Structure formats: C-alpha cells, structure tokens
Amino acid sequence: MDTYKKIYLLIALLASSFCLGSAGDIVHHDDVAPKRPGCENNFVLVKVPTWINGVEDIEYVGVGARFGLTLESKEKHANLFILALADPPDCCSKPKNKLSGEIILAHRGNCSFTTKANVAEDAGASAILIINNRTELFKMVCEVNETDVKIGIASVMLPQDAGASLEKYLTSSSSVKVQLYSPRRPVVDVAEVFLWLMAVGTILCASYWSAWSAREAAIEQDKLLKDGLDELIHMDGVRSSGIVNINTTSAILFVVIASCFLVMLYKLMSYWFIEVLVVLFCVGGVEGLQTCLAALLSCFRWFQPAGESFVKVPFFGAVSYLTLAVSPFCIAFAVVWAVFRSISFAWIGQDILGIALIITVLQIVRVPNLKVGTILLSCAFLYDIFWVFVSKWLFKESVMIVVARGDKSGEDGIPMLLKIPRMFDPWGGYSIIGFGDIILPGLLVAFSLRYDWLAKKNLRAGYFLWAMTAYGLGLLVTYVALNMMDGHGQPALLYIVPFTLGTFLTLGKQRGDLKALWTMGEPERPCRHIQFQPSGS
Description:
Residues 88-166 form the PA domain. It is found in: Endosome membrane. Its main location: membrane. 51% of the residues lie in helices and 13% in strands. It has 16 helices and 15 strands. The chain has helices at 3-16, 113-122, 160-171, 190-224, 229-240, 248-268, 271-297, 304-308, 321-339, 346-364, 370-395, 399-405, 436-454, 464-484, 493-511, 514-519; strands at residues 21-22, 27-28, 43-52, 55-64, 81-85, 103-107, 127-131, 154-158, 176-178, 244-245, 310-313, 317-320, 365-366, 417-421, 430-434. The strands form four sheets. A seven-stranded mixed barrel has the order 3-4-8-7-6-5-9. It has a three-stranded antiparallel sheet with strand order 1-15-14.
C-alpha cells in the first residue's frame, strides 16, 4: 500500500476512536453527594442576567445548590432583584446592612454553604449568590452532620471572575440588578434532526459508492476471464491495491489502539495537542474531499478524460489529472477552516471535511464478511461503554466526554466530530456525534449493500434496507436517551450496535444465508472454465 494511504488510514483510525452522542450537560447528577430531605435538588445550571444602572449587561452562568428553593425555568416568570454586597463578605454572621428582598452577594469560605444561606434568609434576602474562589463552578452540598437544611431561598454558585465583576460594580456605588432562572432544554431540537439526517445520508452515499465500485470490479473481472489468466492476476493486484479488507485481528487491535490513543489524548490534552489533531484532521479532510469531488465530477462526460488520465506523483503514486485539479481548492478549503475555526459558522466547514473523510474511509476500508463485522462492532460496543461510563470509576470522570469536549485545551472540542448548533436551546451549544458512530456501523451497512448487489437481490429481499433502517432507529434511540438523561453524553454504539448487528444476524439466520454471510461475505459467482492453446515452438 502507498505510504500516503497508510497515513490516511491512520487518521481514519484515530477519527473512528471517538464514539459519542452529546448535547452538553444541563443537569449534573452526583452520586458522591447523596440526596436527603431538604437537600435533594439537582445541580442545575443557572442563568444570571445583570443590569448595571438600568442598562442590560453581561449574562453570567452559575450552578444551583443541592439545597434551597428551586428556580423558575422561564425568564418571563423570574423577578428582577437588587443585588447587595454581604457585610461581612463571607455572610457567616448576621449582615450589618438591612435587607428587604435583595439578592445578597457573598464570598465562599469560613463556614458551610447552608450556614450562609440560613443567615441570608434570616436577614431578609430573597436569594444568595456565592462567589467561588476559583474560575470554575463548584457544587454546593449539605454537610453530613447538618440538620438545619430547610432553606427557603435559592442559592447559586458563581465563578470567581463573574463574582469579581459584580463586586466591582457594587463597590463603585453602581446600581446592580439580577435575575435568576434555570431554563430547561427542549425535548427535541432541530439540530438533532439534521444531525440524524447527516449521519444516515453519509452512510447511504458511502454504501452506494462502495457497492457500485464492487459491482464494477466484478463485471471487469468477468470480462477479463475471457482474455487470459495472466491479465486477470495482474488486474486483481491493481484492483485490490486501493481497498483494505479488515480481518479479525485488526478488528480486535482497533479497540486496543483506539483506547491507547484516547488515554494519550486525555493525559496530554492541551492547546498544542488540539492543534496537532486539527492538522491531522485537515490532512484527512483534504484527501477525502478531493476523492469525493473527483469521483463526483467524473460522472460528467466533460471531466471523464481528466479522471481517467493519470500521472505519477512522488510519494502519492499514480494520481489522476482531475484529482490534481481539485487539490488546490480542497487544500485552501481546509486551511481557511483551520484558521477561522473559532467563528460561529465554522461548524459547516468542519462537517463538510468530516463527511468527505467518512465517505472516503467507507470506500477504502471494507468488512469482508459478517464474522469480521460482528467482531469489530462487538469490540466497539464494549469500547464505547467502557470509555463513557466505566472510565468514571478509574479516572473520576468520563474520559470520552472530557476528550470530546476538549476540556483543559482552551478549544471548543476536538475536530473529529460532526456538530450542529442547537437552534432552539436557551443554553446554546452543539449537538455532536463522533466519527466512530458513523464509520464503524457504516462498514457493516456498506457490506450489506455490496452483498445485495453481487447476489442480485432486490431492495426488499436484501439486507441493506433493513440494516440502514436499523442504524437510523438505533441513532434515533440514542437521541431519545440523550434527552432523557438531561443532555449527558451517551455512548451511541450502545444503542446502534444491537439494532444494526442484531437485525443483520436475525435476518441472515431466518433466510438461511448466515453461513455464507459469516464466512464468504460475497455470494459465489460462477467461474468460466478457460482453456489455453499451447503456443507454437
């Protein structure tokens, strides 16, 4: 295999290691801080819009406490309150200033959170904002030995920088008013519908391209059988050089290599490491985009001569003139995306490059039979569950979710994801799906269509329609689970693999094709008996 092809497949392997469906967390469950009467609220994010001297200013985000009054979910029902600075600042004793329904701003420390809330409530405050001593948010819980936890006001933690800004305005005698409310996510966001269509459409396109290539190669092989064995052997070498068939060993190794790569990302997550991933993603995206564009343009007769004419390029091998022609555009597209990837609509470029990469991978990499597909998806199923759920016990947090979000990197997540901004979500953010959730089940779906075409099965009698439908349903269940879990990241393969693989295995057994699918993969095609005339001496 060409060196550049090996590099491309390495990038594809790294891309496939991210298997996650997510919409961002709004409710933060915590089993370490158990619930008890009076201390049983969920940890919810809270919006804190501010008005300085009557002019609307910055909106901050805090987190609600385990105790106290629950907040309104709609902005129109949330009252506007005057903000007052606690005196003493820690609010551990009765404030010196008189309160009559204001929200009090206090510093963390010197006493428990419930003590601060009780003091603020007794003083007449309507709520308490507690400034953390760090820039991140902190979950406020009840102490084990505390009994006075029946608190009738809301308590919200603010990050240090937000609290410092509000404190600065108050000390400068500015009038500060705030609202407190915690909006809920919509049950279904349009972004999830579009993301579902993108994932299903990507596999659909890749499967038809892969099946068409396999059928063309089979027809060409049949024609060559008439012309002589030497030419056939020569053509088999050429035809197979661009395709990589996964075997059982590589299917198992995928989980090991992907796990090592994921842990490396988790441990080395930083700005510079994300930059390396961006470069790798751009390399894979450029190759995928130019492959897809060249194949698409070759369908038009004006471009066919350029697509069928090749030139040998050092390191890359034989490259068509059409591919060389579209390469500058693809490189420029990837570079522009990389430079401006922080702008609001950069997700469009990321999705275009990602879809092109996925389609090309599904064209190059193939599952030869159902046995390999079963092993690959079963390993991926366990891999996804382990790194999303089980890793919390070993690393105190979900490794897959941390890596996907790009925590500690200063970036908005890794690039190996398809993402769409949540359009009707008051919290904003993105709905995302990992490349692995498309590539890995897509390998099996593409195999089903290749089998159907080579076996000359119609759509209903074949396996592709059922495999494609099963994938779509599995992904749909993933989004249902995602919304039921309040936006917590879900291992999509937990739902997709049983649907897709289970449907394939069940149908194969019912139709009596399971043995052929399991071992040979492709249906037996009749071979013509060729007789060679001895050459004259």
